[in-house]
Amino acid sequence: AELRRDEQPSGSVETGDGAASRGCGAAPAPGSKDKPSKKTFSEVQEERREQAQRSVLIHCPNTVSEKKFLKYLSQHGPIHTHFFYESFGFYAVVEFCQKDSVDSLLNRTQTPATGTEAAIPFRSRFLYLKPKGPSSHAAKQSLARSSNHLPPSKRKLFELLCSAESVDDQLNTLLKEFQLTEENTRLRYLTCSLIEDIAAAYFPECTIRPFGSSVNTFGKLGCDLDMFLDLDETRRLSTQKSRGNFLMEFQVKNVPSERIATQKILSVLGEFLDHVGPGCVGVQKILNARCPLVRFSHQASGFQCDLTTNNRIALKSSELLYIYGTLDTRVRALVCSVRCWARALSLTSSIPGAWITNFSLTMMVIFFLQQRSPPILPTLDTLRASADEEDKCIIEGNNCTLVRDLNKIKPSENTETLELLLKEFFEYFGNFAFNKNSINIRQGREQNKPDSSPLHIQNPFETSLNVSKNVNQSQLQRFVDLARESAWFLQQEDGDRPSPSSRQPWGLAALLLQTVAPSKRVQKKLPSERIKSLLESVKSNSTQSSTNTSGKQALS
Ligand code: GTP
Ligand code: MG
């Protein structure tokens, strides 16, 4: 199925239609007939980064008149695009056509003079629009309208899923409701850009890049914002070749290891974000973690941010997932449903622990799609084999080479439906020999487990590591049990859909949202034991039709 415009991968969404109509920017016309060529990960990142640098974030009164607001700002230059949203307050993101306009605006901006408190003066692109005089209510029709950045409510999802036409339609609906919107994606890049301005007070050549689900095409509204502080530019400057007999080097402090260097850099930035960073609250320095990080809330955007550095492989993993998410339109829909399913059944959690992570689940879906006949996704070895000299990439001694130009990869000839794939996914992992086999997306086939961890998923780039090392036997067993039950449930349902008017949960609605079924007494989890005994009773007494054993009712 073709993706609708609003279903395009979040990372590669084209610039909004404002661009064309206002005559600045080079966005292709929406709805253009030619099949767009797929952008590389770094092209998307650079484009978004550049947009963010031309943007400002403005806290404004929610009675602001959109027209007057835009007129006021366009004194500094033409505006490319803008939107309003609500978080802890009412905000606008305004993207100018030129970066100069931002400087012009900042030059006309003042530091607040508060009466009782003292301000720490810091020049940033996060501004406050103070109404002059008493707030005059703008005419109703010109009030700014805010865009939505929240995931759908359970009730709304329930309605949408129940009224879908097929399980395929349900999977696509789920993706459409949860995927990052164009605005949310812009806000993520802008937040990174604002944090970069703060970090640049210490490291002027630094770059803050988003990674993880904000950019890998699998993000859901409300997911965290993973940031990577890239100091390579600073390093590169210091390793340029010298001329003549002299070699000039920066005088730097040395510490015993890269890890300690990372901890020191993050410690100082954490401190600075806490004391000076506009809008940064709840700063926690988690420096003893395997991957040291600074966690904070960016209040104005509403994002929970995880800032790391020296974590280049994670950025490359994001690129790998971006490639897989972009190659075939079914991948994102399937990953989204599996992630929602796991969350709804408490297989995943926002708290770290022995549970499976979203990253591991995504690897499992990719592996499963490599197993189909014909395969829906190529192996990592194939992606490497299609790379050319320029794609070559070695990080910390690991070969991370990937083909960047996705137009070089032939689309899959597999035409299986999402409904079938979801069922088969549950079936496949419900019966997988986790006790002896490892999941390996590099070769696209099962391999003998190199150690005794219950779940072994080979890290795609650091092949001696297991990305699901944290998962214990009982969490794996829950995953297997629920996968089996879900496979069974979807099979039971085949051809047995309630009429739309009955508003009974079916398909994904029954799997994910049993807690909100209005007409039913429901339980939060798929009742594993009950289903097993029901299965037994179906097998042993299939003639006793007075007992209602339909999957839906058994589950609800
Ligand atoms: P969300 O749950 O939506 O935040 O998904 P996410 O993909 O952003 O996951 P998370 O925020 O936990 O991690 C961010 C990125 O770090 C991931 O996308 C991966 O690239 C990387 N990552 C996370 N966990 C692991 C892991 O266990 N091993 C490796 N190699 N990379 C990981
Ligand atoms: Mg994340």
Description:
With 556 residues, the chain is of the alpha+beta class. Helices cover 38% and strands 12% of the residues. It has helices at 18-22, 41-53, 66-73, 99-107, 154-162, 167-178, 182-199, 232-238, 258-275, 312-327, 329-344, 358-371, 380-385, 418-430, 473-493, 507-512, 528-540, 551-555, and strands at residues 55-59, 79-87, 89-96, 126-128, 146-147, 207-211, 225-230, 280-286, 293-298, 303-309, 394-395, 398-399, 437-438, 447-448. A hairpin with a 4-residue loop joins strand 9 and strand 10 (303-309). Helix 10 crosses helix 11. The longest helix is centred in the last third of the chain and has 21 residues, at 473-493. It starts with 17 loop residues before the first helix and ends with a helix. The structure holds guanosine-5'-triphosphate and magnesium ion. The site of magnesium ion has 5 residues, from loops.
What is the element layout, followed by pairings?
Blueprint: H1 18-22, H2 41-53, E1 55-59, H3 66-73, E2 79-87, E3 89-96, H4 99-107, E4 126-128, E5 146-147, H5 154-162, H6 167-178, H7 182-199, E6 207-211, E7 225-230, H8 232-238, H9 258-275, E8 280-286, E9 293-298, E10 303-309, H10 312-327, H11 329-344, H12 358-371, H13 380-385, E11 394-395, E12 398-399, H14 418-430, E13 437-438, E14 447-448, H15 473-493, H16 507-512, H17 528-540, H18 551-555
Parallel strand pairs: 1-4, 2-5, 7-10
Antiparallel strand pairs: 1-3, 2-3, 6-7, 8-9, 9-10, 11-12, 13-14
Helix pairs in contact: 2-7, 5-6, 6-11, 10-11, 11-12, 14-15
The structure holds guanosine-5'-triphosphate and magnesium ion.
